[in-house]
Amino acid sequence: MTDIISHNNRPSRSAAMQTDDETGKNDSAGISSLVELIELLFFAYRDFTSDPDTILAEFGFGRAHHRVLHFVNRYPGLRVADLLDILKITKQSLARVLKQLVDSGMIEQQPGRSDRRERRLFTTKRGRKLAERLIEPQMARIVRALELSGDESHKVSRKLLYNMINSTEHEAVMKLFSRTHAKTSGKRPE
Amino acid sequence: MTDIISHNNRPSRSAAMQTDDETGKNDSAGISSLVELIELLFFAYRDFTSDPDTILAEFGFGRAHHRVLHFVNRYPGLRVADLLDILKITKQSLARVLKQLVDSGMIEQQPGRSDRRERRLFTTKRGRKLAERLIEPQMARIVRALELSGDESHKVSRKLLYNMINSTEHEAVMKLFSRTHAKTSGKRPE
DNA sequence: CTAATTATGTCAGTCATGTTGACTTATTTT
DNA sequence: AAAATAAGTCAACATGACTGACATAATTAG
User: Fold this and answer.
1) B 11-30: CB under 8 A from A
2) Per-residue model confidence as pLDDT tens digits over B39-60
3) Domain B30-148, second-level architecture
4) Minimum Cα–Cα distance from A71: chain B residue
């Protein structure tokens, strides 16, 4: 193991992550502390997204497939347009990945009941199984991190993440979360 | 203020979709609530990383350039090997991006003083300026989100993100953070 | 009813960023 | 002197983005 830096012992920070607040060495929201938060987000996301990669490789899929599979599995009856809105990618980008998921029997398409132009998306049994396998290590990671981060951590981090999302997207997120019925959802109700 | 996203229990959404909360067995956190946290992380990261894109486009750079520029700017004197360890990409991937940053006068290389095989990396004045421009909207986003998320949010989210990182990486992260560029950061002196 | 709009699909080409594998050069360590 | 290390390079390839143009079917508006 290559040591990046020669000095090894930093007892005040090595065991459990302590903040500047706790050490009383800095203002509560110092620049440095903010930058570290940004970097922690990068590291956390880096490791978080790496979890499902091994499983995906078994199927010849990548992360793009994971995203699509996850949201379709989680919100059955999603339309292509909804997915585009969620993923913020182009139709052509989505098409390739979606086609592979359909061709490999992970996702099924059904014409919309009231609007037959729509293709409502659903996971098959296989697709559901894979989606569950993929999210399992990510859930475990989150649960563990929440347990280590105090009782407030779930509520607080939920709020923080929500507030980090573009406010123009807040309504879409809430609408997605409250999507409990498959038939006529997706239309913008006034 | 915003008690957004406070629904603990959601009704089942579809017969086809079998989640554990439909069985009535909710652990304290709730599967559904955990999945929403995962989705919020996706949305937050999606919007967070989109901030610098416009600026990067001006220079013909992408996110890969941003990452390299950020870490070199933040931790001057970083070696190529350090960057590889941070970014978890291959040397060949890094090389392309790094070369472009060097060629465009954003990053300079200096042979290590004690080991002349090393290429210590530093941002130039231009590079520093760009790095600051890039992080500015991200800082603003974080600050705003922290303000909206309560007094605890900085400390708690810092802990959570840290705990989401692979524990095998904890030491590397702490070592990086303690790597002081003495002038700008008032960091805990031991 | 016709015309416009919408939802989706598709062809074709390009770019950014990641990968593997093999090999070189310079330098330091053993 | 030999081995190990830090970095750079060549080549080929995969993934997942992008743009732009166009096609088809169905719905909605005039």
Assistant:
1) 11-14, 16-18, 29
2) 999 999 999 999 999 999 999 9
3) Orthogonal Bundle (1.10)
4) B39
